[in-house]
Amino acid sequence: GLSQYSSDPRTEWDLSTYSTRDQVLEAMRNLRYKGGNTFTGLALTHVLEQNLQPDAGARLEAEKLIILLTDGKSQDDANLAAQTLKNLGIEIFAIGVKNADEAELKQVASEPLELTVYNVLDFPLLSSLVGRLTQVLCTRIKEKSNKENADIPVNTGPQLSPTDLKISAVTSKSMHLTWSPPLRPPKKYRIVYYPSKGGIPKEVVLDGSLSSLRLSNLTSHTEYLVSVFPIYDTVVGDGLRGVTSTLPLSSPRSLRVSELSHNSIRLSWKAAQGATQYLVLCSAAPDGAED
């Protein structure tokens, strides 16, 4: 599977899209480079929520590996997102090119760093990594597969996955989430939420006995993506996803002007619900030279 990212991650193809080496190489040849910012934390969260799910071709019994390729320092918290992935048993290899921050690569990557962190001066030099990286990846998969037991649950469905996510009591700063728990209660829930147009993902971890949460300190008039993941000892169940927008802030109404003089005016208006202060801007018309 492959995703590109800037301020808005984009899935190019899922794990289940192609079944032969030639198909993957052809897709790579047709790939268009996506320029823009470097929100690595948002990209890692996208991979977890979108690309490492059963409906995208991820098999629960298979080892999970992420190869991060970046040419710059992240503009959000990549370490927090990476730690979440690593806590779920997902291994991260970090490859830096040109202006990548090596300290950040080492924070994001899994241990041992001598096998999982690579840095080259320019894109053509990436070819020098292919042989060693291929060998390391294959060896790591074999090692992990041999160590782990074969009794990891393969089938999710209602056994391991919550259902019926409902978002209610939406205000300009908060919303309330509820869901129906799976048949087998999880150890924990991980709730991830962030603005759909790009922003730093935030997360809350809940005890598995709970099935509701109030999100607060949100930005007004903003569309949020919300995901709820059940966490078990050896597996992550299918996530629930929802989207909703916070309400706009209440506005003052009925602006009136009175008591005009050569150097003053009086303004009055109907109050905006919940406002604690008002900012009044006044400028000379039509040029507005001085505020």
UniProtKB/TrEMBL annotation:
- Domain VWFA: residue ranges: 1-133
* Sequence intervals crossing the membrane: none
PROSITE patterns documented for this protein: FN3, VWFA
Question: Which InterPro entries does the entry link to?
Answer: ECM_Assembly_Org, FN3_dom, FN3_sf, Ig-like_fold, VWF_A, vWFA_dom_sf
Name of the protein described by the UniProt record: COKA1 protein
Q: Does the keyword RNA-binding apply?
A: no
Q: What taxonomic lineage is listed for the species of origin?
A: Eukaryota, Metazoa, Chordata, Craniata, Vertebrata
**What are the residue boundaries of the Fibronectin type-III domain, all occurrences included?**
161-250
